[in-house]
Amino acid sequence: MPTTKTPTTKTLREGSTQKRAAILSAARELFLADGFDRSSVDAVAARAQVSKRTVYDYFGDKQTLLQSVVDDIGQSMITTIRRTLDDTLTDLGGLTGLADLEDALVAFSMRISTDMLGSAEYATLQRLVRAESGNLPHRGYNTMADTPDEALGERFAALAEAGLLHVPDSRLAADQFIALTFGVALDRLGSANATEDARVRPLVVEGVRTFLRAYRAA
């Protein structure tokens, strides 16, 4: 069993955005292809077309570089979630009834299923976290943490303020919504990727309807 090491605490350079992105991209490709242990800092530097010193200056050590790769993918996922929320659940004035709200929540869920859970980025994140758990800060390391749930909870609170939902606890509502939609698909099908599995949509639709029965405004 690999021993988890503590990532570096040395002061790191922010440096060039392009060089940082190139190093993260190179490390991601090598960690996926060859694994963390077999991927050297020399190989990462060569693929990124930077010096080995630059890799160490920017990231400190290889373990911190792995964590940065995982964090970078996670931030991309969070950006996708926030963009999808803005695209589907922002125009509250356009939601005039329960049917409109159901359509909007299904649209949000299906966009997440395709744009995020069906993306290469998400598959990469899952692979890295599973394969390299011993080299991350702790087992089950989740760079996204509670951010998606909190972002969805904020939107549910706005829907409650608009009189469209009754939401005593917006974070609990978000957790329950996720469990009823993506959670059911993951438990039953092993995937919530609506792009590859047509069975996801009916589960999502029924989950949204169950959620609305519990949280619709009186």
Walk me through this protein's architecture:
By secondary structure, the chain is an all-alpha fold. The chain has two domains: 15-60, Homeodomain-like (Arc Repressor Mutant, subunit A), CATH 1.10.10.60; 75-215, Orthogonal Bundle (Tetracycline Repressor, domain 2), CATH 1.10.357.10. It is built from nine helices and no strands.
List keywords for this structure.
218 residues, mainly alpha, Arc Repressor Mutant, subunit A, Tetracycline Repressor, domain 2, 9 helices, 66% helix, elongated, disordered N terminus
Structural category is mainly alpha
Number of distinct beta strands: 0
- The amount of beta strand, in percent, is under 5%
State Rg.
20 Å
Give a brief rundown of this model.
With 218 residues, the protein is mostly helical.
Chart the SSEs and their pairings.
Elements: H1 17-34, H2 41-48, H3 52-59, H4 62-88, H5 98-116, H6 120-131, H7 147-161, H8 170-189, H9 200-215
